[in-house]
Every structure is written in structure tokens, then in C-alpha cells.
UniProtKB/TrEMBL annotation:
Location of the Alanine dehydrogenase/pyridine nucleotide transhydrogenase N-terminal domain: 4-137
Catalytic activity: L-alanine + NAD(+) + H2O = pyruvate + NH4(+) + NADH + H(+)
Binding, NAD(+): 134, 198, 203, 220, 239-240, 267-270, 298-301
Name under which the protein is recorded: Alanine dehydrogenase
InterPro entries the record matches: Ala_DH, Ala_DH/PNT_CS2, AlaDH/PNT_N, AlaDH/PNT_NAD(H)-bd, NAD(P)-bd_dom_sf
Active site positions: 96, 270
Domain Alanine dehydrogenase/pyridine nucleotide transhydrogenase NAD(H)-binding: 149-297
Binding site for substrate: 15, 75
PANTHER family recorded: ALANINE DEHYDROGENASE (PTHR42795)
Length: 370
């Protein structure tokens, strides 16, 4: 199979979808890998690194899309890429379709085979290709939140861990999955007073067992959220419903009840965000203020630490990429149920129900396209 790796062109997206090591694994299996020039620079990989691994370099993104049977990316295609996508071409990347009707309809129109990292799902309902970036984003959410709490950025002006004689800052984390767990670890490590909320009592019991003493657990519901946002000055949204839009758990009317300079970090922004006032931001312009509350809603947070993120991501995505290249998408998805769940849009049809439901579009069961 001919594999194409274009350079990411989303704002400040410095990750790359295939490392030189991954390239070598593809090449030794008889596949041809074309990489766009400088695609790996942001993650510390030179064009020569790829050439030594057996890749062929192409100068322009148009060249990569034109020649490849399968495109491997990190982020969803943006509007300038839509016309480059060929009918029947495999696109293996993060899509987050439920947050963008425009993207969904564009991929239907192009009749591509869209495999979304974020909906590949194991029997235990874990999301193996989303976990690495959730780990990165969860840890970064506290790092970024702590920064914007500084008065320089308009924040409340507190140190998360306080100092002897001064109480630590209160951090509220809504969602006890991978993102929330990693955020709680980081905030707790910095000495903050942390509360983590979830709707699963089983998950809260687990978190209560593993977390240090400065992390408390609480059932997530509207009453508790309304009460907690009044006293917590860093709020992290870490809610995920696989493949579907995130629920709006912090509403517009809650903002005036918060302390001026409170920081809200919405890690669920790729899935539409779990704050009603969320709108996607970029690393160039990462935050905005409503009612004296700072919103940090960068849609590709891990792109700011591309070396770590690229290595973590490709560790997870490469085995499936090899399956797709070796067998073709139909056979690979027939043989591997978790990978089959990654199929979202196939040859103009939506085959992932939550995406169809998000926009009231027709749904076709995935088995009918295999």
C-alpha cells in the first residue's frame, strides 16, 4: 500500500502522524511511504531521518494526497484539504466528527474511508488511541491553568499549592476518566486542594482509593457543580462520551457566581466542549474572558508538546496502521472489532450512530459496508 504523511497545517500543530521508526516498520513490510517535506520538524525529526528509514519525500501536501492510498494524520482535515481527498482514500486520524457538521458532510461528499482514532474501542470500553493524548491533555490542563491563574494573565493571582501559612488553591475537575485522573495527579502533586467529580460511583470509589489525601471525590450533578464553582478557582472540564458531543455541564448563568479571575480549561473542546460558553481557541490566541472568568479552550493542546505527544500517539496508532496497510481497510476492520468501531464515515455513509445523531443525518450500520 502507498502511505502518505502530510504536514499538519492546523494552527500550531507540531505533531506528526508517523515517526521515522514507524516508517521503517511500514517499509520493511513492503509498503511505500511518502512524507511531506518538513512534516516531522516540529517533533524533532528531520527529512534525512525519514529518508534513512526508507521514506520518499514530497515537497507539497497536494503531492502526498494525490499519490497515497492511505493518509495518516494527527488532526482532522481542514477546509483547504477537503478538495485533495480522493474517493475511496483511507484517512486515519483524529476526526471528532460530532463537533463539526461541516467536516462530516465534507467527508461524506469526498466518499473517503474515515477511521477516527478517538472511537477505536476495546471490549472494556477503553479508547486505546485516545488515551495517550488524554494523558497529555490532562496533565497539560493543570500546567496551563496554573499559568493563567497568575495575575499577569488576569487570573485570581494564586499559587496552586500555596505556601506554609497560606491555604492551597481549590481545583475542581469534572470527569474522572483518563483526562480527569491525570489532571488530578498533577494538581495534587503541586499541592492543590482538589475535588474530582464523576457520575460513576464505581469510578469514584477507585479514584478515592488511588489518589492522595488532598484529592476528594464527589458525585457529579448540577446541584453539586453549581455549589463547587463558587469556591474553586481552577475548573477543568474532562468529560467524554465516545464519538458524541460533550454535555454542557457548566452553563452561562453559573459564570457570575464564580470569583473574578477563575480559570476554566475545557479539555472536551474537540467534542464540542462541556462548558456552555466554550468556543475553540488556538495556541496563538488560547484564551478569552466572559464575566471575568478566563476560558482556555485550545483544541489541540498536545500540539504544544509535540515531541512527547508524537511519540506517545504513534506508539498507540502504529499497530492498527500496519493492519490497515497489510490487509486493506475492509479485511482489517472485519478481523478486528475495536478497529471496526473506528469507522465513522465510509464512501459517503455515516456508520457511527453518535455522529449521525449529532446532526440528524441518516445512519448506516457498519456491517453493511464491510
Amino acid at each position: 500500500m502507498i502511505i502518505g504523511v502530510p504536514k499538519e497545517i492546523k494552527n500550531n500543530e507540531n505533531r506528526v502522524a508517523l515517526t521515522p521508526a514507524g516508517t521503517a516498520e511500514m517499509v520493511k513490510r513492503g509498503h511505500v511511504v511518502y512524507v511531506q517535506a518538513t512534516a516531522g520538524i516540529g517533533s524533532g525529526f528531520t527529512d534525512d531521518d525519514y529518508r534513512l528509514a526508507g521514506a520518499k519525500m514530497l515537497p507539497a501536501i497536494e503531492d502526498v494526497y494525490a499519490i497515497a492510498d492511505m493518509i495518516i494524520k494527527v488532526k482532522e482535515p481542514i477546509a483547504s484539504e477537503y478538495p485533495l481527498i480522493k474517493k475511496g482514500q483511507i484517512l486515519y486520524t483524529y476526526f471528532h466528527f460530532a463537533s463539526s457538521e461541516e467536516l462530516t458532510k465534507a467527508m461524506m461528499e469526498r466518499e473517503a474511508i474515515c477511521l477516527a482514532y478517538e472511537t477505536v474501542e476495546l471490549d472494556d470500553r477503553s479508547l486505546p488511541l485516545l488515551i495517550p493524548m488524554s494523558e497529555v491533555a490532562g496533565r497539560m490542563s493543570v500546567q496551563e491553568g496554573a499559568k493563567y491563574l497568575e495575575k499577569t494573565y488576569g487570573g485570581y493571582g494564586v499559587l496552586l499549592g500555596g505556601v506554609p501559612g497560606v491555604t492551597p488553591a481549590k481545583v475542581l475537575i469534572i470527569g474522572g476518566g483518563i483526562v480527569g485522573t491525570e489532571a488530578a495527579k498533577m494538581a495534587a502533586g503541586l499541592g492543590a486542594d482538589v475535588t474530582i467529580m464523576d457520575v460513576s460511583l464505581k469510578r469514584l470509589r477507585y479514584l478515592d482509593d488511588i489518589m492522595p489525601a488532598n484529592v476528594k471525590t464527589m458525585m457529579s450533578n448540577e446541584f453539586n457543580i453549581r455549589e463547587m464553582v463558587q469556591s474553586h478557582i481552577l475548573i477543568i472540564g474532562a468529560v467524554l462520551i465516545p464519538g458524541a458531543k460533550a454535555p454542557k455541564l457548566i452553563t452561562r448563568d453559573m459564570l457570575p457566581t464564580m470569583r473574578p479571575g477563575t480559570v476554566m480549561v475545557d479539555v472536551a473542546v474537540d467534542q464540542g466542549g462541556c462548558f456552555e460558553t466554550t468556543k475553540p481557541t488556538t495556541h496563538d490566541h488560547p484564551n478569552f474572558v466572559i464575566d471575568d472568568v478566563i476560558h482556555y479552550c485550545v483544541a489541540n493542546m498536545p500540539g504544544a508538546v509535540p515531541r512527547t505527544s508524537t511519540l506517545a500517539l504513534t506508539n498507540a496508532t502504529l499497530p492498527n496502521a500496519i493492519q490497515l496497510a497489510n490487509k486493506g481497510w475492509k479485511q482489517a476492520c472485519t478481523d478486528d472489532l475495536p478497529l471496526r468501531k473506528g469507522l465513522n464515515v465510509v464512501e459517503g455513509k455515516i456508520v457511527y450512530k453518535e455522529v449521525a445523531d449529532a446532526f440528524d443525518l441518516p445512519y448506516v450500520p457498519v456491517d453493511t459496508v464491510l
